[in-house]
Every structure is written in structure tokens, then in C-alpha cells.
């Protein structure tokens, strides 16, 4: 593993085999990083997708609880108690849904967005600059070949000067694109640490916030409601066992 | 809406049009309840499915964070910090995964199971007994018709006695099946209140437990870790803006 941490811009003009070899190491690293980033993004999108599905599922559940009232049961005696209890549960589910939606939004903004931006901006930039650098290198090679094929006769001085100018232009262009490419590869090495950690920071903070708000919301407030529903369920269960109501 | 709350078993033998009409009200109610229960079960299964998917998604994310180390990056300089940070995040995700799995199990046991049992036991029993009652009623009608078609001549006394016995048997059978059917319909009216509330009690308790454990787990313990990661991310971000490291 090479111990260098950046491509030196001053080496770009000379474009030596050593520099090219070091460049290929940086390119390989960028390739591995692109692949890993795509896999990480996929895993994060799965978490985000599950969170979103939870929002939709709790929405549907809350609606379904309210729908009990609208069923027009042929026998409605004693239903007021069921209806009001399900209404209360529906409110609980709604409050949970608010927390779930907030978490989903937070995951989108602080987990998914940063890693997508890293992919779309940093990784795509490196790949675009690689293409441009490749084109400029080919162009330079072509003009060099053209120059070396020129006949050595004197009457061609004018044409020779033109080709030499072409070579110089191609070299300038290649140099410029290599500078940009090196810069982007160096920046990627630096950016990758943040790019890997930032989304997980967002994820963890989102979860902490979710738990904190959830614990506050559900602390003691529901105790008496749940105890009374639980008593009701228990009472009915016992009646059924002893058959006292049938 | 009738104000009765049960079918009287003593009316079953006489099987009057009034009793039949009341029975049809109970049957309509059971039909509405079956439909509503299926929709509620569907909504609850969606919540459970989302919770399960969250378990799988967090598992995959944790694995993917650990996989960074095994990527064999061509340039590994400075990666120790990224690797150890991602390891730590992976542990956090694992702990969250434990909570998610526990919640999923709790939802399965205390929300999905009771409502499935209500459907498979109570609702299916009513529907089976309805079929048996229908069969017994048809049988009774057939034997009654047979008896009424008997010629009134004296030499048929023996055959007549046989058919009369058949009618009596059919009536006993119908009476018995109506008693069972009435009982099941009465029990359903009673059970439905518990059946609607019990799963939501399980759901809400599962959530409360989840938030409580989550809030405990993430309270202060992560603060210093997150602050140091956050500082790192911030520092890198500033360096990038000023270009001091490139």
C-alpha cells in the first residue's frame, strides 16, 4: 500500500510512467469506493424505505380503527365503549405516525441526501474528469504521431510550425485536464471519510431524537387508559371462561 | 337497531318467524364483523411487515458498515479512523436491531396472534355452525315434506311411524345445531369487544416498551462519540471549503 496521500500537481506536466502508475492506484481506489458507496446507499435506502412503509402502515391502521364506527353493525348495543376506545387508540397511532414521519424526513435529509450528493457530485466528477483526461491524452498522442511523421524537407517549415503548434495546444489541454483530474482524485480521498460518516451521524441522531420524543410522549400519559382497557379485556376474558354472560 | 343482546336458547325449539328474523340480524352483524376484522388484520399485518422489514434493513446496514474494512482499498492511508468509526456505528445499528426485533416479536405475539385467533376460532366457528344449522334445517324440511305426502290409508301405519320417527330425529338434530349456533353467535357479540381492543393493547404496549428501552440505550452514552464524529465531519468540511488540505 503506497504511503502517498495525494497526487502532486507539479508532476502532471511531465506525465512520467511513475506518475501514471500512481494515478492508476488512485483510480483503482476511486473504483472500489464507487462500488462500496453504491452498496452502502442501497442499504440506507432500504432502511429509509422501511421507515416510509411504517408511516404508511400506521396511517392505514389509524384509519381502520376509525372505520369501526362506520360499519353500521346490525347489532350496535355496547359499541359506544368499543368505538371510543378505538378512537383513542387511533389518536395514539396518529401521534406515533407523526414521530415516524419526522424520522423518515430526517433520514431523507441527513442520511440519504449526503450520500447521494457524494455520489452525484464527487464520484461523478471524478468519472467525468477521467473521461476528459482520456480524450485529451488521445488527442495529444495523435498530434505527436502526426508531428513525428512529418518529412524533414525544408519547404515544409510552415506546415511543420503549424503541427508543432497543434502539439503544444494538445499538451496544454492534456495538462489542464490532468490537473483537474488529479485535484478531483485528491479531493475524493479527503472527502471519502466525511462521506462515510456523515450519513451515519444523521441516522443515529434521527433515532435518538425519535426515542427521546417517543419516550416523552408515551411516558405516564397512557397509563390509566391502558390499565382500564386491560381491565376490560381481562374482565371479559374471565366472564367468557366462566360463561357467566352467555 | 334491536335492543336485544342475545338469542334466547329457549326460542330455538319453536323456531318461530320472529326468532328467525332476529337470527338474521345476528347473522348480518357477524358478516359485517368478519369483513371488518379482515380489513383490520390486513392493516395490522402491514404494520408488522414494516417492522420486520426494518429488522432486515438494519441488519443489512450493519453488515455493510463492517464491509468497509474488507474492501481492500488501494489507498488505505487514514482509513483506520473510518474503519473504527464505522465499526462503532455498526454496533449502534446492531443494538437498534435488537430493539426492532423485540418489537416485531411483540407485535406478532400480542397484536397479530390474538386477532388471527379471533378470526380462526370465533368467526370460523360461527360460519361452520351456520353451515351445519343450514344442513340440519334442510334435512328437517325434507322429512317434514315426506311425512305430509304420506297417503292416509290404514295399511301404512308402520311406514308412517317410521317417517314420524325420522321427522323427530331431524327436529332433534336441527334443535341441537341451532342451540350451538345461537351460543356461538351470542359469544361472538361478547367476544368482539375484546377482539377489537386486545391487539391494540399489545401494539401500544410494544411501542411504549420500544421507546423506553431505546431512550435508555441512547440516553447519554453516545454523546461523546457523536460529538467527536461531528467535529471530525465539520473539520473536514471546513478544510475542503478553504482548500487547506488539497
TrEMBL record, chains A, B:
Gene3D superfamilies: Arfaptin homology (AH) domain/BAR domain (1.20.1270.60). Signal peptide: none annotated. It holds the Pfam family BAR_3. Residues 8-238 form the BAR domain. Transmembrane segments: none annotated. One of its GO terms (biological process) is signaling. InterPro entries: AH/BAR_dom_sf, BAR_APPL2, BAR_dom, DP13A/B. CDD domains: BAR_APPL2. One of its GO terms (cellular component) is endosome membrane. PANTHER family: ADAPTOR PROTEIN, PHOSPHOTYROSINE INTERACTION, PH DOMAIN AND LEUCINE ZIPPER-CONTAINING 2 (PTHR46415), DCC-INTERACTING PROTEIN 13-BETA (PTHR46415:SF1). This is Adaptor protein, phosphotyrosine interacting with PH domain and leucine zipper 2. It comes from Phasianus colchicus (Common pheasant).
Amino acid at each position: 500500500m503506497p504511503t502517498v496521500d495525494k497526487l502532486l500537481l507539479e508532476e502532471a506536466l511531465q506525465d512520467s510512467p511513475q506518475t501514471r502508475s500512481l494515478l492508476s492506484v488512485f483510480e483503482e481506489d476511486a473504483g472500489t469506493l464507487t462500488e462500496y458507496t453504491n452498496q452502502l446507499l442501497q442499504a440506507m435506502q432500504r432502511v429509509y424505505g422501511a421507515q416510509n412503509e411504517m408511516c404508511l402502515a400506521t396511517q392505514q391502521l389509524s384509519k381502520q380503527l376509525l372505520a369501526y364506527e362506520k360499519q353500521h353493525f346490525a347489532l350496535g348495543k355496547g359499541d359506544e365503549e368499543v368505538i371510543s376506545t378505538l378512537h383513542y387508540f387511533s389518536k395514539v397511532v396518529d401521534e406515533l405516525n407523526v414521530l415516524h414521519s419526522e424520522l423518515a424526513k430526517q433520514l431523507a435529509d441527513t442520511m440519504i441526501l449526503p450520500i447521494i450528493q457524494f455520489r452525484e457530485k464527487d464520484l461523478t466528477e471524478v468519472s467525468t474528469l477521467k473521461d476528459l483526461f482520456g480524450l485529451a491524452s488521445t488527442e495529444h498522442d495523435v498530434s505527436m504521431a502526426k508531428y513525428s511523421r512529418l518529412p524533414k524537407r525544408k519547404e515544409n517549415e510552415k506546415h511543420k510550425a503549424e503541427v508543432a503548434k497543434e502539439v503544444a495546444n494538445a499538451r496544454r489541454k492534456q495538462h489542464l485536464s490532468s490537473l483537474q483530474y488529479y485535484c478531483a482524485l485528491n479531493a475524493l480521498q479527503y472527502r471519502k471519510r466525511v462521506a462515510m460518516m456523515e450519513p451515519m451521524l444523521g441516522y443515529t441522531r434521527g433515532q435518538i431524537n425519535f426515542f427521546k420524543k417517543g419516550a416523552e410522549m408515551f411516558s405516564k400519559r397512557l397509563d390509566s387508559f391502558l390499565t382500564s382497557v386491560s381491565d376490560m379485556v381481562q374482565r371479559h376474558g374471565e366472564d367468557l371462561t366462566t360463561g357467566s354472560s352467555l
